[in-house]
Amino acid sequence: MTLDPSANTLHLRIKQQREGTSSFILDVDLQIPSVGVTALFGPSGSGKTTLLRCISGLEKSSKGQISLNGEAWQTSKSSLPSHKRPIGYVFQDANLFPHLTAQENLQFAMKRADKNQSVISYSEIIQLMDIESVLSQYPSQLSGGERQRIAIARALLIQPKLLLMDEPLAALDDALKQEILPYLEQLCQRAKIPIIYVSHSLDEVIRLADYMVVLEKGRVIEEGKTQTLLGKLGTSFSRYHDASVVISGVVTRQETEWGLSWISFENHVIAVKQGNEKTGDTLRLRIQSKDVSLSLSNHDDSSILNRLTVTIDDMITDSKDPSMVIVRLLAGSTPILARITTLSAHKLSIKRGLTIIAQIKSVAVLS
Ligand SMILES: Nc1ncnc2c1ncn2[C@@H]1O[C@H](COP(=O)(O)OP(=O)(O)OP(=O)(O)O)[C@@H](O)[C@H]1O
């Protein structure tokens, strides 16, 4: 890959070998979009945290080139020290100063702020993270979710050019995760800077990330737009039980008497439970492969509302469970995955090019 330092991307060409006994080598060559959220995904020990540490300048032995929108932070000849890199960092644990109130923690960050950069104002972030009522509390008096919201606000108040988030929800229980995710969604949609988000959770990645980088043993094995990668067969996550696709569509009809909105994409429509959306709004829908079944005929005597006429594009056996296959379907050019038993695939004579009915049992509205 050629490194074009003038382009509007975060360029990372990094080689880093851990000193000491570890044989781990991180070796990546990436051009990450300079807007939106990029998820770093991969098994434990694949090098996600090491990559974030290299970007932030904490790994002194890292070699290579790092630049954001043409501004070089590291070259083969020089390296900007960590404290001079305009980066906000959110860790798994909030790491707030315990002897300062939430507000004093934020004020401390504001003293470090880059005066030439304006990512977000104090009032905006207080409102976005909904932390006004807890500003006078000390960290020990806050819930885990509140602490993490203060930590996110603090990272943004230094007015960084890049935000790194290393499993920011990992230390929270499921209920707190669900509580904080909407704040993160809002933040990710409104932030004017690139965000790199490390997670083990496909659910978080699907909700938050526009772009995905999958690491394995220090190398990039998959990379691309989230929506495109999710619709592929043979990726590391397509065999997951919660493997899903994301479809963007427009609300074209609402039936309030039935509590439904109809979402159109290409020549297809999908019904979803009506929420706050209005006709004309664009929605992102998540369809899990386990919620899609296949039928050779269109049963309009079925309780399943969403039945799409699709074409079989491809199919693979789940390498971890040979009794299951994952079938890639095309609704127009939009991919949908179905996870069905190998026996069903055999009985239906599933093969490429076959026109078939995809029955979708459940659809989640993402945003
Ligand atoms: N301080 C260290 N000294 C030596 N080796 C280390 C050190 N920290 C991590 N490693 C090794 O570097 C490799 C990458 O670790 P890293 O923490 O970057 O992975 P990760 O993908 O973030 O994992 P996890 O998802 O578990 O956080 C691993 O093999 C790990 O054992």
From TrEMBL:
InterPro entries: AAA+_ATPase, ABC_transporter-like_ATP-bd, ABC_transporter-like_CS, Mo/tungstate-bd_C_term_dom, ModC_ABC_ATP-bd, Molybdenum_import_ModC, Mop_domain, P-loop_NTPase
Pfam family, one: TOBE
Listed transmembrane segments: none
Protein's recorded name: Molybdenum ABC transporter ATP-binding protein
Taxonomic placement: Bacteria, Pseudomonadati, Pseudomonadota, Gammaproteobacteria, Oceanospirillales
Keyword Transport on entry: yes
Keywords on record: ATP-binding, Cell inner membrane, Cell membrane, Membrane, Molybdenum, Nucleotide-binding, Translocase, Transport
Residue stretches making up the ABC transporter domain: 10-242
Protein's organism: Marinomonas primoryensis
Claim: Membrane is one of the keywords in the record: yes
Residues of the Mop domain: 301-367
Molecular function via GO: ATP binding
